[in-house]
Amino acid sequence: MSTFSIFLVLITIVCFLLIVVIMVQNPKGGGLSSTISGTQMLGGVQKTTDFLDKSTWTLATILIVLILLSSLSFTGSLNDTGSKIIEKSETPAATTPAAPAQQTPAPAAPATK
Questions:
Q1: What's the pTM value of the predicted model, to 2 decimals?
Q2: Where do the domains of the chain lie?
């Protein structure tokens, strides 16, 4: 397994976690913290919001770093260097052009009645 494949798996995991964390948040500040009735559960409402905010920024930073590292580890071995189209277009052309054959028109046969 190449390092590029490992980076792809890690990027996929971080993307999934980032989606989950963003979906838990509510854009109006409700989100997960609005479902908690007491302020003492999970460290309080404000701490839950702070945790979700910090985890979003942390996962986004990790995602950017992984993308940059994966681009550095990409060697370009996935491209097809043996393309058939290139091979067909590089066939050598004939070096001497063929001279057109000169044909003399045949004399017309006399019409018979």
A1: 0.53
A2: 3-71
Long-range contact list for 70-75, CB < 8 A, 24+ apart?
70/4, 70/7, 70/8, 70/11, 73/2, 73/3, 73/4, 73/7, 74/4, 75/4
Q: Could you give the angle at the alpha carbon of 109 between the alpha carbons of 108 and 110, nearest 5°?
A: 115
Dihedral sign (CA 9, 15, 18, 20): negative
Question: 3: how many CB neighbours lie within 10 A of its CB?
Answer: 13
AA letter at 63:
L
CA distances, 9 to each of 14, 29, 58, 63, 104 (Å): 9, 32, 18, 12, 75
Q: Is 109 left (phi over 0), alpha (psi -120 to 50) or beta?
A: beta
Phi then psi dihedrals of residue 60, to 5 deg? -65, -40
- Give pLDDT tens digits for 25-56: 876 655 555 555 444 454 556 677 888 889 99
